[in-house]
Amino acid sequence: MKYRDNPQKRWMPTAKTMACIKLADGRFTRGETSVIVEKELPIYVNGRHLVTASITPVMEREFVTGYLFGQGFINSVDEILSISIDDSGAQVQLKDPEKIIKKTGGASYRIVSGGGRLAYSGEADLPVMHNHRKFKFQTIFKAINILFETARMYRETEGVHAAGLFTADTSLICIVEDIGRHNTLDKAIGYALINGVDRGSTFLVSTGRMASEMVAKICRAGIPLAATKTAVTDKGLEIGQKHGLTVIGFVRDAGTRIHTDMAVRVINKAGMKIYSGAERVPCEETTTSNAREKHER
Known about the structure:
Elements: E1 2-5, E2 15-24, E3 27-36, E4 39-45, E5 48-55, H1 60-70, E6 80-86, E7 89-94, H2 98-104, E8 109-111, H3 137-150, H4 152-157, E9 161-167, E10 172-178, H5 181-194, E11 202-206, H6 212-221, E12 225-228, H7 234-242, E13 246-252, E14 257-260, E15 263-266, E16 271-276, H8 284-296
Parallel strand pairs: 1-6, 4-7, 5-8, 11-12, 12-13
Antiparallel strand pairs: 2-3, 4-5, 6-7, 9-10, 9-11, 13-16, 14-15
Helix pairs in contact: 1-5, 5-6, 6-7
């Protein structure tokens, strides 16, 4: 795949400072705050408009690649001849553009920051993962902490979602941020595709809710474990169980700061909820008990 970046392209900031009125200690005062920049990115495939997405203007090439893969329009980066991004949008050249036309019927659409549309890649296209790799629960806590520490926009503005891709020993592969939780997955998966990452040996942590379309994208990418600081939906869990994904919610290490409206709650005890695929996350207590029973025999 060739990537061409127009030298005349105007680089956009990811956040800007704006005036506001703040309420603190019962008093209103004038101040400033950081606000996330939202950009519309039209994607054209072989000259035809496919979609316009609302994104945070960073890692656009990765987003486009991950989006095309997540929707089932491509199965690998080898199907992309080139991606060119300029102020008018992303121009993609595919080897077989007819696949998209067949799936979409030639229609184009728009996805907003909260949209996670999986219109053209159904559950039937998702692989069943038989990966038996183990992940220590301590590494999951470590990864979520690295995510919070490294995701600058998330930490400073609380106006974006963040996701991180890690190896089984918690080596960082990439951290991505975007106004849309689905967009963070597209960026992370796109990064892995472009850089030839063995996705079956990685795991993903996220700040976003694991609904069905999120879980489906992770399954399609062949990432065996996904953990979030927040909730999982029943449909998301159903897809995860069916396709062999380990789904973990409410990952909160001791000392984690949870923002609720105008208050901040600090977690005193570490915890997580493993909804499916618990065999990939061995519990120390269970391991010790099994070892004890074997010794007694």
